[in-house]
Each structure stands twice: as C-alpha cells, then as structure tokens.
C-alpha cells in the first residue's frame, strides 16, 4: 500500500517579503501568509483530501499554517521540533547583505561550502539535511500505507528533497506550496509526484510534476 507525504512550506511572513533570515525566530505569518494558509486549507477540503496525520515544525509560522488545514480536515496537529528551519545562529534576523557586511570572512567560507560550514553558533546545511531526513524516515515508517502532511520551511524542505532525490533543478518552493513524495512499499525508493505545487494561489506557478 502506498505511503504518501505532502510536504508543505509555511505561509509568507514579513521577513520572507524583506529577505530577512528567520531561522528559529518565532516570526508570525503576515496577513498575506494567513490568507495563503486559509486558501490551502479550503483547497484541500474542497478536493476531498484525506490526511491520517499532520506534523508541523513547532515554530510559530509553521503552526499557523498547519492549524487551518487541521481544522478543515478534522486532523490534530502534532508539533515536531525536528521539522524546524535551519538554525542560523548569530545571523538570525539578518539579510544576506547584512551578514556579509558584519561577518565577511565567515560569510565567504559559508558561501564556499555551505554544506559543511555553519553560521556562527548555527547549523550547517549538511546537519540540517541529516536532521530532516531522519525525521522524515521516522514519520513515514510510523504511517506506512497512509497519507500524512509535514508542514515545514523552505530551507528544510529543500534539503529533504535533495536527500530523497538528489540535486534537481526545481522551482522555488512558494509559500504554502505542496511537494508530494510517494513510496509503494517500505523497501522501494521514494517517487517525486510534484514539487512546489500551489493551485490554491491565484497566479502562482503550478510547479512541476514527475
């Protein structure tokens, strides 16, 4: 029986709009982000979506995205800190330009090898990739043969996609977009069904299907 995982990026925040790195900061959804989350919930309900479980990063913006979905589909939200965005340490709250100006040497090293070099007191992309893949494998095994949703973050879901399917050319993971992975049996590789799919957002690119 097929296991299906809907990987959903949280709605937009004011920091998203201004290009400010959020990391673990408790940044709330903007009004636009709340509208995106509500639209996604309505879309899923209107199209007869069934979810056996919804897991969400425990960060505020992700939980605010997950709750309308849970309400629309009658499914409780299960917070999970393993689904958080990358820990940006001392660079949290900065833009890229601000981080480079304030910490030029470390920023250059980070840009040259971001899989292994973390921000000061932060987490490398390699560490993030290992964290989210371990969480994904655990949750998928827990719900073998079922359909679940994971509400997380752009950087985190990007590393998850890469861990499952290798480096692929992919569109930007639009806020509240859905990326779906399926597995026929626990011993089979995962199959990428769609990536960055956002049919509930008027004018949004529809992402890609595989």
Overview of this structure, please?
40% of the residues are buried. It is built from 7 helices and 7 strands, in the order E-H-H-E-H-E-H-H-H-E-H-E-E-E. It folds into 2 domains: 3-87 and 123-209, Phosphoglycerate mutase-like (Rossmann fold), CATH 3.40.50.1240; 89-122, no CATH class. The chain is α/β, with parallel strands linked by helices and 210 residues long. The mean pLDDT is 94. The chain has helices at 14-18, 31-46, 60-73, 96-102, 104-112, 125-142, 154-165; strands at 3-9, 53-56, 77-79, 147-152, 178-183, 191-197, 208-209. It has a 7-stranded mixed sheet, sandwiched between helices.
Quick overview:
With 210 residues, the protein is an alpha/beta fold.
Record the SSE blueprint.
Layout: E1 3-9, H1 14-18, H2 31-46, E2 53-56, H3 60-73, E3 77-79, H4 96-102, H5 104-112, H6 125-142, E4 147-152, H7 154-165, E5 178-183, E6 191-197, E7 208-209
Parallel strand pairs: 1-4, 2-3, 2-4
Antiparallel strand pairs: 1-5, 5-6, 6-7
The CATH architecture of the largest domain: 3-Layer(aba) Sandwich
Low-confidence runs: none
The secondary-structure class comes to: alpha/beta
CATH-defined fold name of the largest domain: Rossmann fold
Tell me the strand order in the biggest sheet. 3-2-4-1-5-6-7
Q: How many separate domains?
A: 2
Strand content: 15-25%
Question: Mean pLDDT, nearest integer?
Answer: 94
**Portion of residues within helices:** 25-40%
Cα-atom radius of gyration: 17 Å
From the N-terminal CA to the C-terminal CA, the straight-line distance is 20 Å
Q: Which descriptor suits the 3D outline? A: globular
């Amino acid at each position: 029986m097929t296991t299906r995982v809907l990987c959903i990026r949280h709605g937009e925040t004011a920091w998203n709009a201004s290009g400010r790195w959020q990391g673990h900061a408790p940044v709330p959804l903007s009004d636009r982000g709340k509208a995106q989350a509500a639209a996604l919930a309505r879309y899923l309900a209107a199209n007869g979506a069934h979810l056996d479980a919804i897991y969400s990063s425990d960060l505020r913006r992700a939980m605010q995205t997950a709750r309308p979905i849970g309400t629309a589909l009658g499914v409780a939200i299960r917070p999970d800190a393993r689904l958080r965005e990358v820990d940006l340490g001392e660079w949290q709250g900065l833009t890229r330009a601000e981080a480079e100006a304030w910490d030029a040497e470390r920023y250059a090293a980070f840009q040259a090898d971001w899989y292994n070099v973390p921000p000061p007191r932060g987490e490398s992309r390699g560490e993030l990739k290992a964290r989210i893949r371990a969480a994904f494998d655990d949750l998928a095994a827990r719900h073998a043969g079922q359909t679940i949703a994971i509400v997380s973050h752009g950087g985190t879901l990007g590393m998850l996609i890469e861990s499952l399917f290798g480096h692929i050319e992919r569109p930007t993971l639009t806020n509240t977009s859905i990326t779906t992975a399926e597995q026929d049996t626990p011993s089979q590789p995962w199959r990428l069904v769609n990536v960055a799919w956002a049919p509930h957002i008027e004018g949004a690119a529809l992402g890609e299907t595989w």
